[in-house]
Amino acid sequence: MLKFKSKKKLFEKIIVLILFINSFNVFGQLDTVYADENDKIVSKQIFFQKFNSRIYHGLSFKTDTVILQKLRFNYFFGKLNSTIKNQFFKIINKKHEIDTTKTLIIHYLDTLKSINEFPKKTEVVYRDSLNNIIKLPSGGNTLYFDKVRKIKKHKHFLNHTSFINNYKRCIRKHKKYDDIALILHFYGHNNGHPKEYKKVKWYNDYGNLIKKIFTDKYKNFDLIIIHPNGEFYIQARRNDIPYKDLVNKTNWDKYKNDYISTCESLNYY
Fold it and tell me: Which of 9, 99, 233, 251 is deepest in the core (most CB within 10 A)?
């Protein structure tokens, strides 16, 4: 029998399970189209062959008539050619005085919201099929489970204090890499947030240069690790590759070759 440390944990597990079941109920009556990571339409068999590998995950997009199941990379290994690398390093050094002799660890936000755009409190908001907010009562009573069954989606919201604290934790976590790497927080667009706030600094991705360079084959990332020789790793979802190995470039060829072998086995490298 499964044991949970608290009723809260149990209720969270139940909510996740119901959301998973509801997703099938909502999508069950519509035609489904499958697309690979390059937006090419593929068969259901090919889609799930790749989906079930460790390097892909899938996203669902629903319209009134069809469901699109889209493949995305969990992570990606690559290398910048010398021309692009030199130009890229020269630009970010000139714009931001970034030391490109070190490994660059980039966390990327499409939009840096203004302080006023953040909610007043950190919370999870649940919605029903009509996009109405569902307020969950405390406890495991009948009313609680009736409301849980109506949940179709949920979203996590951070207030500004939680947002800043997350970045502070990130900076502390990377202190041990100071000798070899830089942790950098970039944004594509700023809605009015200070570029530096309580010792947390963000850099503007001028002309969306970073996004343009790293979206040729990979369109969904929040982490980029770029080594001085131009080899890079980008990631959207956590995996079993040790983070310290990626930063220190330990066993890099092993992880990269394993990634390439998996791609080749799926005929898509």
Answer: 233
**pTM of structure:** 0.77
Spatial CA neighbour of 47 closest among 28, 72, 76, 65 = 72
Order of all β-strands in the sheet with 203-204: 75-79, 231-235, 223-226, 103-112, 181-190, 203-204
CA distance 103 to 87: 16
Reference 227, options 244, 213, 248, 212; nearest CA is 248
Q: What is the pLDDT of residues 82-118, one digit of tens each?
A: 999 999 999 999 999 999 999 999 999 999 999 999 9
pLDDT tens across 136-190, in order? 776 655 566 666 666 677 777 899 999 999 999 999 999 999 999 999 999 999 9
CB of 54 closer than 8 Å to CB of 74: yes
CA dihedral 223, 228, 232, 235 (to 10 degrees): -10
Q: Answer yes or no: are the C-beta atoms of 107 and 185 closer than 8 Å.
A: yes
- What is the H or E stretch that residue 35 is in? strand 31-35
